[in-house]
Hints:
Layout: H1 14-17, H2 23-29, E1 36-37, H3 49-61, H4 73-80, E2 93-96, H5 98-110, E3 116-121, H6 126-133, E4 137-142, H7 153-158, E5 164-170, H8 182-192, E6 198-202, E7 224-229, E8 242-245, H9 249-263, H10 268-274, H11 280-308, E9 311-312, E10 320-324, H12 331-340, E11 343-344, E12 346-347, E13 358-362, H13 367-381
The structure holds pyridoxal-5'-phosphate (PLP).
Amino acid sequence: MTSKIAKSEFTLPQRLQKVQPTLIRRIFERALPDSINFGLGEPDLPTPQFIREEAARVTLEEQNGYTSHAGLPALRQTIAEQYPHLELGLANVCVTVGSQEAMTAAFFAILERGDEVLIPNPSFPAYINCVNLADGVPVFYKMPAEKDFGFDIDEFKSKITGKTKAVVLISPSNPTGKILTESDLKAIAAALDGTGIYIVSDEIYSDLYFGEKPRSVSEFYDRTLIVSGLSKSLSMTGWRMGWLASSQEEVVRATLTVHGFLTVCTSTITQKASLLGWTKEAEKAKADAREIYKRRGEFLIKQLDEELGLRGTSPEGAFYTMVDVRELGDDLEIAEKFLTHRVITVPGVAFGEEAKGFLRVSFCNNEEKIAEGISRMKSALS
Ligand SMILES: Cc1ncc(COP(=O)(O)O)c(C=O)c1O
């Protein structure tokens, strides 16, 4: 006999109650048709043709059943080789549905309810939501606006408590385009030495740099969980190719458990095509993308200065600059004004209080579109 259950309204589980749609999404939803999109966080360059062709070939010629949860061994091997200093084996790599899944699954793997996770302010808004989903507590360390959003070791150390379980690093950064220097990374490693705290190192933009190649904190700190993927370096955002790589085998195993139940595995077609993601041709495509974004970034900074009299932070990597609009007023209002003139920018506050008074402007647009966007911004301000 079935017992009668009182009908009640659906209530969102506590875990989900703290998760909010991001301000970025809310802005995109209100954009006018034919807007110039400086809000984009994804490459506009085409996915390299040889990767598309390989995906088409394996789709037509091969049976594409599940792979193991952790992903194709040959792919894991290739990913492991990207971090020679760690001497990783197959058990140290889990292929995930984009780096986003690697990050969320890793938090589920390491956090107990109430564990604190240090998150940069400003940074990619997903971190807060991922930590909340896994019942952790986000705690913020400032990347001070007055230091051009550079790293501040004293501020960082002041946020470490007995409850800190993990810290998030993002370099090159979304939204600031800044890169953590070798001395920043060594200082972080020294501050965490002996604490048992994990570093979740978001290296999704590590192939997009305009000066020296960024270093990975995993060179200096053992308990590092590298989160990365091919979305940004090979314009493969929709392919959902990411990974977690770490010398911490138990954490990889725990992450794999979460990943297996969430997804089974990332698309087999994506995995097979991604085997070509580190060939000579692929490395050339990454280098070409770096050149293109570097040129666009310089063009954008120059246009902002010459046409609008605004200063953007000098991008070191990724494809973003933070534009100082404090003299013009509130960042939300300025972004709103631009939106009505068919230009999408993201108010800094979407990434944290420290970026209030700034706009994140991305250069995932060619020079012609950048110039058109700047001209629309100019009329919005006149
Ligand atoms: C900082 C950062 N990390 C992670 C991601 C997620 O990328 P994906 O899941 O496509 O690898 C993004 C995407 O915008 C990002 O900006």
